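#onboarding

Welcome to the new folks! Below is a worked example of what a typical request in this channel looks like: someone posts a single protein sequence, and someone else replies with the predicted structure as tokens. Don't worry about understanding the tokens yet, we'll cover that in week two.

Example request:
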Amino acid sequence: MTVTVYGATCASSRRSKEWLTKNGINYIDRNIIKNPLTVDELQEILRMTVDGTDEIISTRSKTFKELDLDIESLPLQELLELIHQHPRLLRRPIIMDEKRLQVGYHEDDIRQFLPRTTRRNQILEYLGLTPNYLQPAKG
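Example response:
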């Protein structure tokens, strides 16, 4: 699965990419300020959210405040066009693959992008067990 990091030059995006690299996860890096998301791409991201636009829009951003938006009154298509025109409205980074989505950098949550076997082996190691037949680890 291909992981994509939609971000910008910010600390959270940088930490996310560092974590993915450290854990051997290949990813595609996309700077959304230089290369804004299309309306179709935004719709794909929204399909994967739990809280819809509330999950991806940064209401504390300078752009949001300057535009003085009332998100609730905007039709979705207009809002998506606005985000396309003003990508700084998005929270960053947005990390996703075909099945998972994470908005922002959270060290515990980003582990979801590790392959299942890697997560399983890390848990077993933490418990002092080896992956081979759940035998106690040596040493």
